[in-house]
Write a structure and sequence with these properties.
- This protein is of the alpha+beta class.
- It has one domain.
- The chain has five helices and eleven strands, in the order αβαβαβββαββββαββ.
- A hairpin with a 2-residue loop joins strand 7 and strand 8.
- The longest helix is centred in the N-terminal third of the chain and has 16 residues.
- The protein starts with a helix and ends in a 19-residue tail after the last strand.
Length: 237
Amino acid sequence: MPISQAVQRWWPLPSSLDLVRAPVKVTAAAVLAEVTRFVAGQRLSAAWVPFSSLDQVFGSVAVFTNGPTVYFVLPTRSEWTVLWTNNFFCAGYDSLCWCLTKNHGLDTLHWQSSDNDAVFQAGSLFNFRQRTDAGLIERSVYCCKDDAHWEFHAKGEPLAHEDLAAYSTRRKRDRLNEHGMLGLLERLGARPWEDEFYLPGEAYRIERVEYPQAIKHKKFSEFACERSCHGASSATF
């Protein structure tokens, strides 16, 4: 299936769309509990809202902030639920994923992928977490640019779905890129850059009605990046 045009139009917003392996209502309740705890008494609004596509979700947010003030919990046609926030760093919400696993027992996959420099330098990474009777299991892979060099490292027991042979590729930048990241997600049953992956209906939207004045605001035009015509946006998987 072709990658959504929303990925092209709204880049880099879709460069990280965190995944929770749980039904959307279970995920929504857990996210609300954690955000309520994070904001420590500040007012929130939360409601189920009409949902049709990533394009609609991205277009519904007028202001982006350096700390999330709007959170979306998106339904899919799979066992996964997608999380997205209006953070203009477009780096997902790894600490929220960690709390969802530790405090609610939900499998989470925080990931980020961009073959070109955007808000951050190019690179791909993921952190998978699962809570077991023995404690919290974590698997992390990091393959990202650091100015003129690329860094690669992996920690934890590999997932059965990983392409371990790719991690031995001579060029570090090729060990995990958009193609490799999307391939891993697909093998896990998730295609977050495809329209057909999402289930139209209702999404859960949480907004911080009150937040510190120190939080910075930007419009999308202030950090938008053009996608490379050679990148994954023109491919199909």
